[in-house]
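yo

u said u wanted the structure for the complex thing, so here. seqs first:
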Amino acid sequence: MPGAWQLFRGLPRTKILASSLLPCQHQSHSGPVPHQAPPRHPSLSWRLRPVSRSYRATPNLHSYTLTPPQVNSILKANEYSFKVPEFDGKNVSSVMGFDSNQLPANAPIEDRRSVATCLQTRGMLMAVFDGHAGCACAQALSERLFYYIAVSLLPHETLCELEEAVEAGRALSPILQWHKHPNDYFSREAQSLYFNSLRTYWQELIDLSSPGEVPETGEALLNAFKRLDNDLSLEAQVGDPNAYLHYWVLRVAFSGATACVVHIDGSDLFIANSGDGRAVLGVQEEDGSFTAHTLSNDHNAQNEDELARIRGEHPPSEKKTVIRQDRLLGLLMPFRAFGDVKFKWSIELQKRVLESGPDQLHENEHTKFIPPNYHTPPYLTAEPEITHHRLRPQDRFLVIGSDGLWETLHRQEVVRVVGGYLTGSQQQQPLTVGGYKVTLGQMQGLLEERKARTSSAFEDQNAATHLMRHAVGNNEFGTVDHERLSKMLSLPEELARMYRDDITIIVSQFNPHVIGSQRRENQS
Amino acid sequence: MVWIRSMRNCVWGCRGLSPAMLPRLLQLQGGAFHRVSSHRRAVSGDSQPPLPSQAKVVICGGGIVGTSVAYHLAKLGWNDILLLEQGRLGAGTTRMCAGIVSVAKAISIESQMADYSNSLYQQLEEETGVNTGYVKTGSLCLAQNQDRFLSLKRLASRLRVMGINCSIIKPKEISKLHSLVNIHDLVGALHLPGDAVVSPPDVNRALAVSAAGQGVQILERTTVQQVLVEKGHVTAVETDRGPISCEYFVNCAGQWGYELGQASEVKVSIPLHGCEHFYLLSKPLKQPLPSNTPVVMDMDGRIYVRPWQGGVLSGGFEKNPKPIFTEGRNQLEVQNMQEDWDHFEPMLSALLRRMPQLESEEIQQLVNCPESFTPDMRCLMGETPGVHGYFVLAGMNSSGLALAGGAGRYLAEWMVYGSPTANVWPLDIKRFGNLQSSRTFLRHRVMEVMPLLYELKVPRWDYQTGRQLRTSPLYDRLDTQGARWMEKHGFERPKYFVPAGKDLLSLDHSKTFYKPDWFDLVGSEVKCCKEAVCVIDMSSFTKFELTSTGDQALDYLQFLCANDVDVPVGHMVHTGMLNERGGYENDCSVVRLSKNSFFVISPSDQQVHCWSWMKKHMPNDPQLHLEDVSWKYTALNLIGPRATDILAELSYVSMTPDHFPSMFCKEMSVGYANGIRVMRMTHTGEPGFMLYIPIEYALHVYNEVMSVGQKYGVRNAGYYALRSLRIEKFFAFWGQDLDSFTTPLECGREFRVKLDSDMDFVGREALLRQRQEGVARRFVMLVLEEHDTELDLWPWWGEPILRNKEMVGATTSSAYSYTLERHVCLGFVETPGGLAADFVTRGDYEVDIAGQLYAAKAKLYPFSSLLSQQRRRKDQLDLGTLTTE
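structre next:
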């Protein structure tokens, strides 16, 4: 068992420090039920206390040891796989399918994931949303963002058909086919609100575009992001006659979420990222090994460009205060996010909205809290950074993950684990003695270790689950350590967040044959 | 691959002969080529001597097996022989095999071959001047547990029968012989002082040099593409360098033997399949290991270890083998055939457990060398059934080096004399047919076979893979009634039946050298056979129909069969089909269906062998027609006194012995089904009937028999009950007790031979001579006295028989007789000088079971028991055949 410090490696930091910013911290997992939120855990108060990185003592307060089946049932609870159906015995899509999984640390989990196929245009959308200050914003994104993107991608004619259908009360031809785990829910109450906002958006699109115009994908992604964030903000300002919905739109706007969205159509791969989620491509080298190719930039304090951008957007007098302790205004870790109107609205607007808001908001002392040094809003934007990549036959898979994954495993390790899993454990770099001095005893030790490493691969049918197992259970040798895994998973709810963040993973596999032939077609 | 390259350099460079010298030597001997060509070759280095247009024998494959065949053919005086190798001599499996020559083999004929190979290789260096690396190291077979120790003791007994020196030793003595062996978990070992190690490529080359010296032409880089066949006889081969006409073709292509067989004009089925095989080479130990250190075979650890250039060479037979070349030769697979350390891990662990001191020694290399395996762990040799002149020697199951010498010799004898000088039936390729030729079957089966090489084998084990290929229509019915199955020639046969409610799992896992847990189950089946009636599904029997327009069928059978088959229609005859030596090629029952048609019933595994034997002797007469009807009939054996009642009730025909005497056959109706061939015999000596039922009636007849039989106490029984019944009645079975070297006179079956009539038949001369000279061996029955069935080891086969403390023979089969409540062994005793009449009856007999001696009473066939004597005499009078004694 590695030393105790091992367990703290990659200890997640709460994404937003003064959670007093929340209008409400209590959401129920089963969907929005109002008035159900008395403080649940006494420990909640200290959980929200600002935390320093040098954390506390040992994790084994209650050292439950889980059996391997118990560990598996926890790891596999949220796993989901989808295989793109074959047509006529052939898979013509560049995406063969995907595996996804989530492991909560927060209760309820604040990460969300979405995958859907665009039905009116071509392409597949995948996204990981990482919420903070509650899950409301991430939940809203997981339901709405893809519709905004899909609509942005539609040509003028299709938009008009849509509008006509709605006008005439006809059934709409579906825009998206969702690939959802049963736990990925949609809120029923807000659907008509969402739909109206979306319809307004496409009506504007119809006015702005002209017949024959086909939107460019990058542009469409950008517009969809900005538009949705704008809608979230507007809906909160306008409110809703229905008290529950009014409360809900405020929760969405006052909480926040990052989004990392991938759109794959043929060999065109677009990434729209805002925040610290990340998409990494697994590239197979000629010798069979895998290297990581990062397709998105993290928007946080580790990104020099982002630091420069934010400092540039505000007067020099704020240079010292706008980013403190690697956080936006000393509070927020991601530098781009949806929602989070506390960082976007003027102080007057915040006060006005809160005053007109439902009573529940006032029960919370902290709603009146304004970030310190709040002089020149907005400080935060949801505008994504768009990356384009043309898939090559050696690009084998894409891993999209929330920061909970990336802070526990290096991207190279992530790609090695997934690559090894997808190509079968046999692909584990074969050993050769050639020229080295190896004794029989050393070789035996080496082989036993390799055996232990591969044995964990057989337990998983899902690449994301396999990666999760490594993310949570890896020891210093890059091997899954059951004891460690068991400890990490048996942490009581209120402690879990101290040792790990919510982890969400989507692994999509590409079809090198299709990609290869598409490239040839394009070249000829 | 460094080592391999250096090894090749060894082969061609270091040892005596330069690469160019070998062909030159061949040319000199062959005389067909001149120095000019050899000179030119030396210059250009790559040109080839021209291809001869014809040869008597073409051998394909220049590995140890092919060169051994060439060597022995030359020794026997044939010289128009051409050996073709697609690459370089000994470049295939031979180049990389571990080089252990051990007599520790599963069956006696293999041990015999290995023993001969050993002495051949030993003198080869003297004969040829080529250093073969022969070192008589001896070998140690280790036992980690008592069961393994028992099996080694049994092996030791078998080897002693053959006169091979060996001893069972204690752990302490092991460490005296081999300092590295960790003896703490060992219970003992078998020491074989005669075993040796060699350098296989050098032995290969020595054989080639010697063969070349005797006129064999050897051509490298010549690939055989097709074998041409005309009228069922090999006429020529086509190579990548042109055709060669020949009389004989020998397929020694090893791994590629299967594909080469398929590449014949008439496809030849050679059931073998490759598996990767790994062994490790260490660098010389810090204290170099002496070259005469014994070879260690730790079968419980699945590994072997031999000394190699001051270090060790260690490989094994893992539980999870990697089959290779399923779809034929595949360049990708050849390239991927690299060191797989992860796969080798269990064997490395076993090695370090056995020799912990090696831990700090350095690794040189892990070698991956594919071996070919067959469906029953035994090699494939002999003439193929379909094509005359097409011989095979392949599928050596990783004992290629150990067997090559002996097998090459027997194959050469086979070709030159028409048959080998020893009984090689267990290795005869005719034990297989097309049905074992499926790649899927082979792939699955060899994955079971390879681990089995080192697995502990207890009496009556069965293969688990490649099953349920041939089944009777009653298979499902019997299976649901608790049948446990064994397989013969691909056919599922019931062993015994487990009544509902018995613990099935524990029964399936019964593995013991002692009393098996089916003992009581079989006992109750035997009891039922004796007292009521049992049904045994015996559909696996080989069944032929012979018809002709005139007397041809009779004449032909009279010539082929030792017994007089000119019996009235509706009679049946037990007869052997003998070879020129008078030995049994087949033991069968012949039924005269009509004047000119006969029904021939032979053992299951005779399907290919008997067919080709009969075809070989069949006159070329379009009026004479032989058909294999095995698949047309389901055979039910109704054994027991109440069988008569059941049949009488189902057919409304009186079945009493007066109306339906023994050894009679009637076509009659049973239930609603008509045309059932009913015979009064049971293959056991018990009263009862055999029913040959056209398969579409099988279920009906079975159901009727079972429902009508209920009131007579009918039940299912299996082959174990049959075995017990027939052995206690001293009935011999071909393939177990009888073989092509056993004559009817030796097993007391003179009464089944028409020696006294003046009709000619195959083997008559030999039998007459033997009758004149007297027999040197006799088939005996030994009833074990003072053998505790509960506590003592059970006999199996191959146990030495001692007479007055002297070894006089070995057993061939054995069973527990529930009637005598004793174990009964059948076997042969012999004395070199000829057997006196009272040799058997006078003398104190003992049977050696794993080193333990058990007193036995010896009996001769036919029985002297009064009861059965009387009955037999009566039967024979009915048949009008001869009686003896």
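Chain B is about 30% helix and 25% strand. Residues 108-128 of chain B form the longest helix (21 residues).
cya
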